[in-house]
Amino acid sequence: MTRTDATAAPERAVTDAPPDSGTSLSHGLKQRHLSMIALGGVIGAGLFVGSGAGIAAAGPGIVLAYAVSGLLVMLVMRMLGEMAAANPASGSFSVHAERAIGPWAGFTAGWVFWIELCVAIAVEALGAAAIMVQWFPATSSWMWVLCFMVLFCGMNLAAVGNFGEFEFWFATLKVAAIGVFLILGVLAICGLLPGTSAPGTSNLTGHGGFLPNGTDGLVAGLLASVFAYGGLETVTIAAAESEHPVKGVASAVRTAMWRIALFYVGSMLVVVTLIPWTDTSILTGPYVAVLKHLDIPAAGQIMNVIVLIALLSAMNANIYGASRMAHSLVERGEGPRFLGKVSNGVPRRTVVASSAFGFVAVLLSYKWPDTVFKWLLYMTGAAVLVVWAFIAVTQLMMRYRLEREQPERLVVRMWWFPALTVVALLGILCVLGLMLREKDTAVQLYATAGLTAALALVGYLRQRVAAAPRG
């Protein structure tokens, strides 16, 4: 046994066997839940609203930016799917990193991810509350935040099947909304909608050309598009609580990857083909701009409903993901032991702790929006790339070990290994390097690097203490 193996305390392996009784997590998620979590997990408000800034920076070249970042995301998802199918665990990549690299790596990746999700919970709660205040001006934002936090904390305290059912229907609505948008867009591009004429390529090549702002604009669009894809990790966390973890995650990953790319790249192509990228209405919401261009009644309110659904769905999924990651860390001796209790298959204490951290972050946004809360956002600004880097390095190390010791567990295989794994890792490092080009993204990178380094140091010291001889 190696030193790393000796000091690690890995989660119990999860197979397609019936769940254990007692303190283990339940297996209440069905295959349809996993499939929609995989598909809807990366479709958030960043796509519906935030993509406008990317279009303003890159022009029609945003299609290329989303295609490149989409390829990177597909590679990361495939790597994660390979490891999750080989060994499903509620700690997902954190467990795999601990086994492949060392306990310090699992500790670092897990807590970076947990903090990222908890801050995201706060951001999503604030965004959802802002929409509700638009509809009900006499109400206050904090009332809606409190309502949403209590609702989704309560939902996650109940059986995991409730979370799965909620996410299934919310993901279905998001996917259906994008599907309808794509159908309307294609019909309009072909000139088949009443009152519309085919625009041809005038908006793609006019107004400064396909790359009106050159490579600088393309880089800005690439950075915006990469962070819009966050959320793909949730399905591999949820797989550990499904009826058939190995088969479930393998199927979900295989079917979700190309559909996600189609939704993102396809919808961006529709936007920049139908309306000029210089149209200022794109900044406030490219989907609304297109729907108004097509004279769809109440376009703004329709998109507000969809954005609200996306925010609430992401909020619910992040409470779930954060609570399971925290539970996994605690179970491996890398978190406060009092949070480790499981009741009726649900880690309720980590659900409450994750929700509470998110709620505290909301309070910080009210009290110190430009200082404390702003730095919380900065510290998690590049966290998704840190997690992806851990995934790539872990898969590179684990694949060789699995091929040598347990090749039968490779139900899902990374394409053209190890070449594409190395390409993905270089792509992640390239994006991190591009963040240094802009002042705001550079500050985010430095802050995230500081958080990661601090957690890595704590994790390494814990590993050294655990490995030291007692006597």
From TrEMBL:
An annotated GO BP: amino acid transport
Cited InterPro entries: AA-permease/SLC12A_dom, Amino_acid_permease_CS
Subcellular location: Membrane
Primary localization: membrane
Membrane-protein topology: Multi-pass membrane protein
UniProt keyword terms in alphabetical order: Amino-acid transport, Membrane, Transmembrane, Transmembrane helix, Transport
Residues of the Amino acid permease/ SLC12A domain: 33-458
Region (Disordered): 1-27
Keyword Glycoprotein recorded: no
Keyword Lyase: no
GO CC annotations on file: membrane
Residue intervals passing through the bilayer: 34-56, 62-80, 111-136, 142-163, 175-197, 217-240, 261-278, 298-319, 351-369, 375-394, 415-436, 442-461
Family in the record: Belongs to the amino acid-polyamine-organocation (APC) superfamily. Amino acid transporter (AAT) (TC 2.A.3.1) family.
Protein name: Amino acid transporter
Organism (species): Streptomyces caatingaensis
Origin organism lineage: Bacteria, Bacillati, Actinomycetota, Actinomycetes, Kitasatosporales
